[in-house]
Automatic annotation (TrEMBL):
GO terms for biological process: NAD+ metabolic process; NADP+ biosynthetic process. Its EC number is 2.7.1.23. The active site is at D64. The keyword Transmembrane does not apply. It is found in: Cytoplasm. This is NAD kinase. It comes from Micromonospora lupini str. Lupac 08. Its main location: cytoplasm. It catalyses: NAD(+) + ATP = ADP + NADP(+) + H(+). SUPFAM superfamilies: NAD kinase/diacylglycerol kinase-like.
């Protein structure tokens, strides 16, 4: 199994659980060489490109960003990815650390289902990249607006003049596109949504397209320099010309699910919480006192 670690969070406890389980079951663990100082000596460090190649399954330890990185690393030969939650929100990640030993045993016995994910295969000015959530053209602060034309299957559709233009998968529709006012797309749909953020002119609403249609965003000569983001990561900085060609690739990522219905219900709750205008501390204050501090036992009154 290959371990994909959150770049900054402390993963010691979770890696320890996995390492002890792997030792008992005589399973090999791999991690990219850059992370060898963060794992026990029994975990074999290998070049980053070989982690997914040599593993039968990947274990993502972090949040959604780490999970997306694990999916991208295996896009040429998709492997099942089990997500262990160490993030803040975690729409993609299902397992909490206390449930990890049982999850690993179920993974070994193939007692799970696979949730298939599509990705966006993108040609960014000649460079090939993939995105499981979204690809975005984003304005640089203080440099004007993103001005780009949209073509679908070679036919001109219109143009954007906005702070950003976000192209997302159905799973990615809950991320940047949603924050920009885009619709929620069912994970079961083969669709791509193009959403402008803070549009000033041109197309001002989301456009939902078929997964079979090819999309091209081309910067206009008078556009400001833009940042190209892939799943929230900067892929190209200060691009002032060129085009992005985008196609939809089905079954590009395989996510391990143990309880799909419970996972779906939990995500519905998380989505509803995103629309509440409260800080976490304010939400906590709405709970009954016995739930605000569950570790504190109430002291009975003295007679």
């Amino acid at each position: 199994m290959g371990l994909v670690l959150h770049p900054t969070r402390d993963v010691t406890e979770v890696v320890g659980i996995i390492e002890r389980w792997a030792t008992r079951h005589h399973k090999s663990l791999f991690v990219r060489a850059e992370d060898k100082h963060r794992v026990p000596a029994s975990v074999e460090p290998v070049p980053e490109k070989d982690v997914a190649v040599r593993a039968d399954a990947l274990i993502s330890i972090g949040g959604d960003g780490t999970m997306l990185g694990a999916l991208r690393s295996a896009v040429l030969d998709p492997k099942p990815v089990l997500g262990v939650h160490l993030g803040r929100l975690g729409f993609l990640v299902e397992i909490e650390p206390p449930a990890l030993p049982e999850a690993l045993s179920r993974l070994l016995s193939k007692d799970f289902t696979i949730e298939s994910h599509a990705c966006l295969a993108c040609d960014v000015c000649g460079d090939d990249v993939v995105a499981f959530n979204d690809i975005a053209l984003v304005r640089q602060p203080g440099s004007g607006f993103v001005t780009a034309t949209l073509a679908v299957d070679g036919q001109q559709y219109g143009y954007y003049r906005a702070d950003a233009v976000v192209v997302s998968t159905p799973i990615g529709s809950t991320a940047y596109s949603y924050a920009a006012g885009g619709p929620l797309i069912s994970p079961a749909a083969d669709a791509v949504v193009v959403t402008p953020s803070a549009p000033m002119a041109g197309i001002s609403r989301s456009v939902v397209l078929s997964g079979d249609e090819r999309i091209r965003l081309e910067l206009e000569p008078h556009s400001s320099a833009v940042v190209v983001e892939m799943d929230g990561l900067v892929f190209r900085d200060a691009a002032d010309e060129g085009a992005v060609d985008i196609s939809y690739r089905r079954n590009a990522g395989l996510v391990v699910r143990f309880d799909p219905l419970r996972y779906q219900e939990r995500n519905q709750l998380k989505m509803s919480l995103l629309d509440l205008p409260f800080l976490p501390e304010q939400l906590k204050a709405l709970l009954p006192k016995e739930l605000q501090n569950p570790n504190e036992q109430e002291i009975p009154p003295r007679c």
